[in-house]
From TrEMBL, chain A:
InterPro entries: MetI-like (IPR000515), MetI-like_sf (IPR035906). Keywords: Cell membrane, Membrane, Transmembrane, Transmembrane helix, Transport. This is Carbohydrate ABC transporter permease. It is a multi-pass membrane protein.
UniProtKB/TrEMBL annotation, chain B:
Its main location: membrane. Coiled coil: none annotated. InterPro entries: MetI-like, MetI-like_sf. It is a multi-pass membrane protein. One of its GO terms (biological process) is transmembrane transport. The chain crosses the membrane at residues 21-40, 86-107, 128-158, 170-196, 217-241, 277-298. This is ABC transporter permease subunit. Gene3D superfamilies: MetI-like (1.10.3720.10). It comes from the Bacteria. Residues 82-298 form the ABC transmembrane type-1 domain. One of its GO terms (cellular component) is plasma membrane. Belongs to the binding-protein-dependent transport system permease family.
């Protein structure tokens, strides 16, 4: 007998195996991260012996205190926070503004503008010509190199534009009758009704800003202006970890090793993103879909 | 309407332009940015055909034609760089492209909505880690006293610890596996979205016809998301040559160089570190040309196969 609600044997087996497979994927995804967190919470010297898999063997916050007392790390963290906040606000505002203009169907020259932008999706200048431009613009060793060259993205513009075109024209017409010009329509009408897409692009660009290390590597010689990811890159890839320990003022460091300090820095660096993203999750799934329509 | 007569076309056009002066300013600010930050570097590409030195302007530099390209093709690194670039990209495409689709298909079969949500949330998480942090995780895992060596030693599979990142033989495997680990869940989002819009009627009909779970996946779900797969395939092919730079830069070192030297790394080394600006630009341009050819091929293949294309 086959009833609609009862699973057959094959179905049950399928569900079982599928669930096991999914749990395995979750474990493989989370465990490497857990391993780093646990080791960062273990006393540094003891941690060098290895063998810490599930829980800290000798629990210690020393590594984290080391991070917060390390002047180099804290400066870099400050740069990262500043560039992420300022960069994201400007990127979202500027890209949305241009997208709003491009989305207006009566815009004279609109087709040419969109063509000019579309070309940039497929062609670029590459590393060296871009570097030479930054040099000519005096953006080397300048904080603004993190902000201005990424203030706009044509890909994000497409996502914004798709969203703006869905907004009923009546909304703008009503504002126009009330005497609003295009600037105030954009700021007071369009931005407030576009929060889902603004949240999506903010998350994307915020993550980009937070995680980008390469800009710091090529354009920044001034160590006081390097972001935390560039700092970590120099530690991870170039093994300059001893310098890390040296930057901690005295009174600590007997148990902190360069390795344990590195792990704690990695955790501190990643924390903000891990906390923010579950809240923005419902937005970015939608945003990804809007972005994909363009194809 | 006060004025029913058609206006002369020119005045009409100017009046329209005047009426939209605010949005024109917004649009032109964007165009100015695009020209400065996208088109000026494109103009800068001409240094690939010139002998550019940092002390003179691009216009002053003498033309040398295809000399830098010739130098690259004749360079000892050429074969190695091409092998690494194409090898990593190709394997990544063959393994990395279908996995998110398979993951999405199976995740879709999870019945409990809350459980499904939880798995998704976990699977996106690594996407938000930077390659630098991931590089730190990997160096910790793959170290001589790292967990991988510990496990293999405990299982008696190896006699002494292996320095994975110092061995070229392991490099491609590390790059490809860690990339899949990082992006699997994230890449699956778009497929899951496409799957969720498949009509339930199709599944009901298939159930009545006696289709099992696998058959429904194969004959209903997969064909329904064919369009999405095609578009993402074209994008994956065109982007494949430049998608590993951040990752490889973190993980490469002098010992694994024979497996880690891809075009982007080579451009960075010859240009930024050795100051051979013209040569490095020529190598970068060569890569762009290959990427463009790949894009056109992928586009026409998917167009032939199932009538979807990017342009």
């Amino acid at each position: 007998m086959l009833s609609l609600n009862r699973k057959t044997k094959g179905e049950a087996l399928f569900d079982l195996l599928n669930n096991i497979g999914m749990l395995l994927i979750c474990f493989v995804t989370l465990y490497p991260i857990w391993y780093v967190v646990v080791n960062s919470l273990n006393e540094g010297v003891d941690g060098m012996r290895g063998g810490i898999y599930w829980w800290p063997r000798i629990f210690s916050f020393e590594n984290y205190m080391g991070v917060f007392r390390n002047s180099g790390i804290m400066t870099a963290m400050g740069v990262t926070v500043a560039k992420t906040l300022l960069g994201t606000v400007l990127h979202v505002f500027f890209t949305a503004m241009v997208a709003y203009a491009f989305s207006r169907r009566e815009l004279i020259g609109g087709k040419i503008y969109i063509f000019i932008g579309t070309v940039t999706l497929f062609f670029g200048g590459g590393l060296i010509p871009t570097y030479l431009l930054m040099k000519d613009l005096h953006l080397l060793d300048n904080f603004l190199v993190y902000i201005i060259p990424v203030m706009f993205s044509f890909f994000d513009l497409i996502i914004f534009m798709t969203f703006f075109r869905e907004i009923p024209d009546g909304l703008e017409e009503a504002a126009e009758i009330d005497g609003a010009n295009d600037w105030s329509i954009f700021v007071r009408i369009i931005i407030p009704v576009s929060m889902p897409v603004i949240a999506t692009i903010s998350l994307f660009h915020g993550v980009y800003q937070w995680n980008d290390y390469f800009t710091g590597v090529i354009y920044m010689n001034n160590m006081d202006l390097q972001p935390i990811q560039t700092y970590l890159y120099r530690v991870v890839a170039q093994s300059s970890s001893n310098q890390m320990v040296a930057q901690i003022p005295g009174g600590i460091g007997k148990t902190v090793t360069s390795q344990s300090l590195k792990l704690a820095t990695m955790v501190v660096t990643t924390m903000p993103i891990v906390f923010v993203y579950p809240f923005l999750q419902r937005y970015f799934v939608k945003g990804m879909m809007i972005g994909s329509i363009k194809g | 309407m006060e004025n029913m007569r058609p206006e002369p076309p020119r005045r009409h056009w100017l009046r329209k332009l005047h009426r939209q002066r605010h949005i024109q300013v917004m649009a032109l600010l964007g165009i100015a940015w695009i020209i400065l930050f996208n088109y000026v570097p494109m103009y800068g590409i001409i240094i690939a055909f010139k002998d550019y030195r940092i002390i003179r302007t691009i216009a002053e530099a003498p033309w040398v034609g295809f000399e830098h390209f010739k130098a690259f093709f004749e360079d000892d690194n050429f074969v190695n760089v091409m092998k690494n670039t194409l090898g990593i990209s190709l394997i990544k495409l063959i393994i990395g492209f279908p996995l998110p689709i398979i993951f999405a298909l199976f995740l879709n079969e999870i019945r409990s909505l809350r459980y499904k949500k939880a798995i998704q949330t976990i699977s996106y998480l690594p996407h938000f880690l930077s390659w630098v942090v991931l590089g730190g995780i990997l160096t910790t895992w793959l170290a001589d006293v790292g967990i991988i060596n510990n496990i293999l030693l405990a299982l008696n599979l190896i006699k002494e610890p292996i320095s994975y990142l110092a061995e070229p033989d392991y490099f491609w495997g590390i790059i490809i596996t860690s990339d899949i680990w990082k992006e699997l869940g994230w890449s699956a989002i778009i497929y899951l979205a496409a799957i969720s819009s498949v009509s339930p009627d199709l599944y009901e009909a298939a159930t009545i016809d006696g289709a099992g779970r696998f058959q429904k996946m194969w004959y209903v779900t997969l064909p329904s998301i064919k369009g999405t797969i095609s578009i993402l395939f074209i994008l994956a092919v065109s982007g494949v040559l430049n998608s590993n730079f951040d990752q490889i830069l973190v993980l490469r070192n002098a010992l694994n160089e024979s497996a880690s030297n891809v075009i982007d790394i080579y451009v960075y080394q010859t240009g930024m570190l050795s100051g051979r600006f013209s040569y490095s630009t020529a190598v970068g341009l060569f890569k762009s040309v290959i990427a463009l050819i790949l894009l056109l091929i992928a586009n026409s293949v998917t167009k032939k196969l199932n009538n979807t294309s990017l342009f």
